[in-house]
Amino acid sequence: MIFRIFLLIAAFFTLIILSACEPKPQPINYGSDGCEYCRMTITEAEFGSQVVNNQGRAFKFDSVECMAAFDLTNENPENIHSKWVPNFLNRDEWVEANEAVYLHSETLRSPMGLSLSAYADRESAEEMRQEYGGEVIGYEQVKQIVEREWLSNENIGQHSNH
Amino acid sequence: MFANKKHIILAIIFLTPLSSIFAQITVSPDGPVASIKKAIEMAEPGEHIMVQPGTYTESDIGIDKPLTLEGIDRPVIDGNNEGFIFVINADSVTIRGFDINNTGRSYIRDYAAIMLEKSKDFVIEDNRLDNVFFGIYLAETERGIIRNNRIESYDKREASSGNGIHLWNVKSPKITGNHVTGMRDGIYLEFVDDAEITGNISNDNNRYGLHYMFSDGGRYYDNIFRRNGAGVAVMYSDNVDMMNNLFEHNWGSSAYGLLLKDINHSKIERNRFYRNTVAIYSEGSNHVHIHRNDFELNGWAVNIKSNSMRNRFTENNFIENSFDVRTDSPRNPNEFDGNYWSHYEGYDLEGNGIGDIPYRPVSLFSMIIERQPESLILLRSMFIRLLDTAERIMPVLTPKTLYDENPKMHRIQ
Fold it and tell me: Per-residue confidence at B154, pLDDT binned at 50, 70, 90?
């Protein structure tokens, strides 16, 4: 009996240790955490994104575009464990950035002005596109947009919406 | 004969309907015109609509011609938590003297109490907005005035609130004498040219009191920014003048009195920074002149990253801040000259009011915190004081080139 209880406790702690080891998305404190890329305070849960490194530290961003910009300019890519974006239609759900589907639509404005929102699957992104226009894209194209709009010209914002 | 003529004139005045003389429509809850929408429908362009006291439950009130809407003794327009309240698509519209409450809320549509689209020369003044998602929303407008409005929203049940005064793609707006509280950003500007923002009070907003994004050539002065979630942010903009403002009580892990991100050729003059976590945080900002400001009782007066270049700090008062200047590199390409530093311990043998030895505003401890934030717990310990004093005498780790050659002996008035 005592042995069984011991086993149970041991199993319990192994579980805790294992779950603590696996880096995973952290909760964002909206209205208090700052964006790692643009320094703005993160307030909108439908856009707040994050990168988790191998030590489990989360780098938080106010928008998909800031996360992609961080990803593109990161000097230490091998230490990135995973990248997470919120499902625009269910803001408590984290979707892996590479698996997410994105809508790039001028009518759905995002915090840093590149009009990017993320979805868990292609169907819901398509539905949103039918309502709001724009194009459905993947993470590689998100990076291309950020590269083109922000990184290849010196000044952020110079070319969007004008 | 004379008397008769008088009678005829009187008869004409009394018999002619009022509206045709003054071009005016009156709306009242129990009158012939009981709804604002109906009055707008009836009105000729340029007409004046007077609204009597009472509560009007109306939303999505469209205005597509020049009109003046004036509330008498603050009539209430209740949007019933549905959609927009006013949507204005015409030039020369005035809305004055209303209480406007309860817009819809949405994560996709930016519902606002007063929405102006592609309008010119409008005046929105003396209104009180309460429980609104966005307050006054300007999109692609020119030369409007937003004056003496009060906007508040304390609905904390909603995870996100909108901005009090929101401007997107706007030219030459004047925003003056407004009071915004309890919103996301008090005043938000995105792609706005030549904004003039004066005499506003923006306090207790969830994010910034004032937020510039990609907005060149504006100026803001005589405003008060108090207890906002993260202070004031001026980002990705050029030629912004910031004068005579008060930045106070902005506390928090990512809170600043004033956050400068990618700002060029701007002026920060005669402002007062009082009790902020960081009074001015500067990243990637160049050619900014910081002149004659008071920095008092802040955690850090200035946190300037070394990617900020050719900024000048002159004749400012640095009074009892926990740290005067923080930076991330021993090389800091910015100039400090002729400021008053209350932590200065030098002397003035010549008696010219300028200290004879330079002042180094970056303490060793400040550099240690930059690398190891947790060490802040050692603040005010004896050991740290000794280290700081030793470092001041013989700088090793602190920026050698960052010093004030002419520290003032007395506070600059």
Answer: confident
